[in-house]
Amino acid sequence: MFRPHFTLSAALLASTCLAGLAQAQSIPEITRIELGQAGIARYTMTAETTGNLITFTVPKGASSDVLASLVVRDPAGGVVDLQTETPGSATAALRETAFAAGIPTDTPSLLAALTGQTVTLTTSLGSTTGQVMGLRRFDAVEDGQRVDRMAALLLNQSGVAEVVLSPGTKVGFSEAAARHLAEAMASAQNRDDSRRFDLTLEAESPRSVDLSYVTEAAAWKNSWRLLLDEGRLQGWATFENVSGAGWDDVQLTLTTGAPVAYRRDLIDPLFIARNESDDTAPKPITAKADNGVTGLMNLYNGTAQSESRTLRPMPAPPSGSASEAAASNDSGILRYTLPETVDLENGRTANLMYLDLPIEPEIRGLYRATERSRTLLLAASITADQPLASGLVSVQDADGFVGDAPFQGMLADQTRLLPFASVSGGAIHTDSQAIARLTSIVHQEGILTLELLRTRTTTYSGALPEMVDLFTVEHPIGYGALDSSNGTAERGDGFYRVTVPVADGTGTVRLVEKETVQKQVRLGAGDFGSLLAEIEAGQIELSQDYRAAFDQASRLKTQFEAAQREVSSVRNRYSSLVGEQERLRENLESVTQEALRNRYLTALDKTETEIANSFDRIDQLETRMSEIEQQVLAVFAAL
Prior knowledge:
Helices cover about 20% and strands about 40% of the residues. The protein is of the alpha+beta class. Residues about 1-25 and about 290-325 have low confidence and may be disordered.
């Protein structure tokens, strides 16, 4: 059973403290752990020492983190140095030996690595000693089968010997080569999962020294319990001890936030290849032909100056405080320090309550008009006097579980809504009415620039469950600024949130949005007709003066359109008369009877007269249309 006295352990840093070479050892123990939600932890261990040497071990994977982040707090003085053994990787051990390419895995690769060195090859045919010159691959026939064989070329006093590497061939070589290979194999097969560090301090007096470093760790997970019937909000932390050792009597601090952290490799040796030297051999001297000059120039001797810049530190975010676990909010990271120490064996998971706040949750009906589903939800409204970390909230009442609510966390004295269930059969009715009011007109060169104040009134109403005291609507932003509402209004990310009390099981939210827009209309064009249509339909409100002007403009527009239609009719009649004239002229050419010719001439004369009258009528109508346009311009010019 998990004890109220919690524990998280010091095995992550199994440490040894030496007070001088002749004094008794003191093992540093982990006393504090800061465990983060971002998978980063800071471990602090305390050593009781009387000397200037502290020896401690950490998991091998944390070696670079110790070198990058170790902080030593010694009240008696500073640090001399921190040392550890250089990693004995195969590459590092073999770099200056014949096995620089790696550990050989068969006889040919071993001999290839020993090229130039003296070896003894022993086969079923005998032993041969010499310097390895190289290897040769060839096909051999054994027992009637073709097989792939390798032969080694050895140089000795007798000349060059070729030794076929048959199965079971033994290779003998120098003690130095054997030692290098054995050391490399031992280094490659090293399975130790910890690393020892030796910390030398300046002082040698009896005292407590704190060592801390930052490394990777299993992130802790946060969850919440909202107990509606008790009016309590409980924070629970789930964390694992996967450090390889138990945690005993450790002060645990839980942190939130997302600090920037990098994986660094400071423990392995780093070799930088040098550039090849330039060829220093003498080069032939060449001369370039002179192309002449164009004139004299002034010479200026200047010096280049470098500029250094100092970066300013970024300001820290606001801080907060907590009551249960002592909390702080530094550098944008929220920290909860548990009031009691923690014990936890390696390989065990703990789930403990770190916060228990009394709250007064309000149950609301929440309608999110910003979402496609537009479902009526039940939501709990909570307010706390301290910052809270994000996490899923399990909402429960006296009868049992009622739902889960997503929670993004909040600062002190803020309010958050926790939607935890949908209302079965709940429906919200929405009514929206929009109208525009003309506030000003500017006329210039036949173009009207109108300033319109658009107003939209939206009403949400519906029946709500008995347990609901408040009705909240999240209305999408986009039409204009919120001008007024019948409840408490707040602005969120892309929405206005309006809340009203519920009366007799019904909630009604009403909000008014307004915005000012400009619109340009060319007189006599189609958009001017559309504007008049909107006014006649009551979609645009006008003052008395504007109403009189647009009424007069509308009447003139009617006259203008009538003249337009008549012009079109006269033009059509003119086209018909022209066609009739062509037909009469064709008939005249083929007619010889005098009476019939006279009749055609009379008809032709009549069409000529009517055509002339059509031209006159079109001129009269176009003159009238021009007069109407000037009258319309005068109407708005007067405004």
